[in-house]
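F.,

This is the one I mentioned.
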């Protein structure tokens, strides 16, 4: 079960906020090592294991991720769904609305939407119709058929196509470990794609015991917070055979806007200062409740998400100001600074320089919000900050909390400060969370909490029917044990434990035992599956964190 290794999981947490991963995810790394299982151990998080035969997605069929297949998902990996494509009347075009793609299907070819190596990536793959699934997925056959796909990456934040290309190029070169050569990098107009990258790299030939040279093409663009990369990979000898075909096919692709969805958020409640504020879900709490002098208290300090994180600090004044302007003028005086002040309704804001950084300050009569950039300039827009300030309100809670609220899938749970959280647009993986920050040492195992939400094709009357299905699918090598019915926040859950051996990470090292606790509940035709996973020898260390998570987890109606 390679997708469950702690090392692989931690790479996913990092990858959630690093754009450009799609440029390498669909290509070179799939063939970076000799054995297929080594490829999966190195890459795959949300895709089937080597044993699983995953059929291409049919035009009118959704992939098998209902509760009928939950046992397979638990035993073989956390497979996200790949929604079926809609076929136009001409039967020559398929629309993949969930990833914003409209693609022609050339004669003699098939097209399918499949899971990428991480939850934030999906792949629309184009392959010859007469190619079997085994041939298509076998690294030993690489070079005997063209490898063509469109990788769609949720970059979390919007960015320019130039920035996305640069990040993609940087990650591809880094993955090549000094052996990759970029042979072409230029702006183009190939259908909706704006940049053309070509390169070459030597890799081991699994069948001949020699080194072979491969070439790759990436056509890249951005649409909102989604990066799109047409990828074509082949051996040096066969690359030119399909190059014009790939360029023509890429020219016919249409990129469409995704359906709008409600934004998730972090609801921060501070009992000491009796205040509550909502911020974007990618913001992480760093500091709380500090007396900083100058007649004000630090309520909370956030680190924003994205590639250029800023520090956003909320202060509460100990002085009663009559207006936001009076407050901001007092704040600037304490800083021995001056600036032109602008007014936006009941909020004032200005810019000033400190330590060669452009700081931004917003005030109301009671609160001040200061933005300190990681670089010279901050990356927050006015509308986001005004939305945050608009949610400030006085409350009288018994205790403070940091609550993640997923508006799209309608669930919430409390998170710790300085923790790791990721949210996904694609598939059934809704969110991933760890109560501890990402460690620098990739060999350190950390607990990972994953939330899957899926609409069922077959209605299950109750959890008992789910249990029967799971018990029938149980395998001796990865048993499901300790079945329980538990109640959290007024909702019944079915839970059980699984253990399995995993590793090594890379070609060497010992195998390690991992342990998971799985929770399942039903909400109408939808199912929720929660999975807490960590190395077995670290289980007791974080057991209270799991208890706290489940006590706070709420499935909203």
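My design for it:
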């Amino acid at each position: 079960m390679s997708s469950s290794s702690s090392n692989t999981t931690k790479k996913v947490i990092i990858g959630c906020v690093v754009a450009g991963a799609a440029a390498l995810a669909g290509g070179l790394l799939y063939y970076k090592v000799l054995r297929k299982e080594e490829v999966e151990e190195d890459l795959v998080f949300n895709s089937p294991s080597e044993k699983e035969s995953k059929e291409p997605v049919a035009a009118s069929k959704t992939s098998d991720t209902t509760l009928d297949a939950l046992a397979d998902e638990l035993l073989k990996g956390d497979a996200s769904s790949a929604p079926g494509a809609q076929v136009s009347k001409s039967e020559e075009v398929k629309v993949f609305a969930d990833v914003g793609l409209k693609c022609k299907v050339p004669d003699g070819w098939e097209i399918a939407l499949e899971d990428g190596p991480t939850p934030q990536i999906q792949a629309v793959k184009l392959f010859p119709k007469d190619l079997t699934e085994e041939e298509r997925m076998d690294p030993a056959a690489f070079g005997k058929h063209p490898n063509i796909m469109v990788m769609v990456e949720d970059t979390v934040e919007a960015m320019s196509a130039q920035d996305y290309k640069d990040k993609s190029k940087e990650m591809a070169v880094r993955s090549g470990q000094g052996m990759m050569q970029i042979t072409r990098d230029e702006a183009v107009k190939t259908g909706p794609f704006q940049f053309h990258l070509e390169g070459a790299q030597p890799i081991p030939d699994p069948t001949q015991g020699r080194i072979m040279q491969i070439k790759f093409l990436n056509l890249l663009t951005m649409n909102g917070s989604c990066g799109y990369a047409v990828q074509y990979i082949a051996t040096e000898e066969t690359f030119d055979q399909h190059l014009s075909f790939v360029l023509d096919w890429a020219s016919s692709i249409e990129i469409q806007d995704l359906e709008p969805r409600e934004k998730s958020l972090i609801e921060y409640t501070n009992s000491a200062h009796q205040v509550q504020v909502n911020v974007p879900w990618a913001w992480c709490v760093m500091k709380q409740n500090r007396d900083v002098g100058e007649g004000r208290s630090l309520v909370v300090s956030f680190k924003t998400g994205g590639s250029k994180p800023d520090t956003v600090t909320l202060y509460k004044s100990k002085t009663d100001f009559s207006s936001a302007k009076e407050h901001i003028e007092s704040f600037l005086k304490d800083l021995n600074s001056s600036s032109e002040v602008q007014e936006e309704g009941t909020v004032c804001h200005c810019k000033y320089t400190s330590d060669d950084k452009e700081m931004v300050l917003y005030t109301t009569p009671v609160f001040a919000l200061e933005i300190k950039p990681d670089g010279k300039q901050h990356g927050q827009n006015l509308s986001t900050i005004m939305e945050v300030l608009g949610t400030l309100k006085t409350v009288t809670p018994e205790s403070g909390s940091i609550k993640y609220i997923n508006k799209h899938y309608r669930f919430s749970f409390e998170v710790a400060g300085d923790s790791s959280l990721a949210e996904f647009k694609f598939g059934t993986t809704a969110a991933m969370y760890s109560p501890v920050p990402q460690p620098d040492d990739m060999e350190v195992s950390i607990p990972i909490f994953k939330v899957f939400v899926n609409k069922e094709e077959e209605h299950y009357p109750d959890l008992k029917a789910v249990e029967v299905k799971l018990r029938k699918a149980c395998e001796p090598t990865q048993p499901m044990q300790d079945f329980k019915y538990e109640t959290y926040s007024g909702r019944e859950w079915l839970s059980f434990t699984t253990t399995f051996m995993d590793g090594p990470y890379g070609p060497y090292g010992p195998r390690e035992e991992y342990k998971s606790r799985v929770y399942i509940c039903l909400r109408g035709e939808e199912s929720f599956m929660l999975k807490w996973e960590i190395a077995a020898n670290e289980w007791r260390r974080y057991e209270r964190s799991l208890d706290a998570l489940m006590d706070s987890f709420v499935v909203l109606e």
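The first strand starts at residue 86 and ends at 87.

Talk soon.
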